[in-house]
DNA sequence: ACCTGAACACCGTTCAAGT
DNA sequence: ACCTGAACACCGTTCAAGT
């Protein structure tokens, strides 16, 4: 009730996605319902289905939109360590901007059509790092799960809890330690 | 309708949790509804609420139940590398047994009251590995997110996709590479 | 104590109808 | 083409009532 279904403009997909993302950021993916979204847009719930196939499709749309903002490091001569670091930080910054959505992305991998560009870039960096070809696929996947696992934990708020007698530690510092550990591991395998 | 609400035995919490877990394993957390669970137990939906506060509380119960099965490596003299490896594999094997539930656990960390025992064991191993005290908390968290990130990706089915020209790679091998990489990274920091 | 039926306030989505 | 209202088949949960 109380959906005053009158508006001037004609309702675009962009508008729908943007509003959905705003609602997700504000209250989590679970708090987004087609009916509430419609109310927010001052539109009948069923109008949405004229622009979007289903709620799942809408979420997919929003996920892709956000994932597109990932800034991949260019293939200039930058040393592999710096490129790997840059990629890790870029990935993390996207998730930090929309933690609730990222929680959803991770547990619904089909929501993101695979970003082959990301894999290609990671591959290139690992080749530069001297990872032997037979271990390339494994290493690529391992690294991706490491970084996404960290970022995911951060989104879920696991990393912020109190520490032992050392007091609360800074999550930024933890991420740096994490990235350093990965780079050290990769460097060790390289003579 | 059609819930033939007659049964002999008196419905226990264990029975509820076990059935819930079975349904989650079969169809994912999303497919579990209080009403379907009640139907499966041949009971009125409202009877469940006499044993459980809410659906969230029920899921929490099930998560704790499963998490309790984690086999932590004992504090014998085993070298830290072996202990760390054992912990990683133990953690993974739990998730592998109930992937859908684990997907939920990860995105709802409040569903698992923190397993301080796990943290303690990990701490002990890292001390044995020679991680300096000021980096202990960071390293512990980084490692945890690495392993849980890997396991999570495996649960979500991200790691099974086709690889480049090398054909499909074995996920077990990838996990081994991942653990090796972590151990190499830790070893590098140790003189 | 333990269980139940009816009810409330929500969902996503279909479908026929309106402009 | 674009939007709408009513309706269907679901949810989780409350509450008063039954044994």
From TrEMBL, chains A, B:
Residues 33-52 bind DNA. The keyword Transcription regulation applies. This is TetR family transcriptional regulator. Pfam families: TetR_C_33, TetR_N. It comes from the Bacteria. The keyword Transmembrane helix does not apply. GO terms for molecular function: DNA-binding transcription factor activity; transcription cis-regulatory region binding. Residues 10-70 form the HTH tetR-type domain. Keywords: DNA-binding, Transcription, Transcription regulation.
């Amino acid at each position: 009730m109380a959906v005053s279904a009158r508006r001037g403009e004609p309702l675009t997909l962009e508008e729908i996605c943007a509003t959905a993302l705003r609602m997700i950021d504000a209250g989590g993916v679970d708090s987004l319902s087609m009916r509430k979204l419609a109310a927010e847009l001052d539109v009948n719930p069923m109008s949405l289905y004229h622009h979007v196939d289903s709620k799942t499709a809408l979420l997919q749309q929003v996920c892709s939109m956000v994932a597109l903002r990932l800034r991949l490091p260019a293939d200039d001569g930058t040393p592999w360590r710096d490129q790997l670091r840059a990629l890790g930080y870029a990935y993390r910054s996207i998730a930090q901007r929309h933690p609730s959505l990222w929680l959803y992305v991770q547990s619904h991998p089909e929501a993101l059509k695979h970003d082959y560009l990301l894999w290609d870039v990671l591959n290139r960096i690992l080749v530069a790092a001297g990872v032997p070809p037979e271990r390339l696929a494994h290493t690529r996947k391992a690294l991706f799960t490491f970084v996404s696992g960290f970022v995911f934990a951060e989104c879920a708020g696991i990393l912020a809890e109190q520490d032992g007698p050392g007091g609360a530690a800074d999550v930024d510092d933890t991420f740096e330690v994490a990235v350093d550990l990965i780079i050290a591991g990769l460097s060790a395998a390289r003579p």
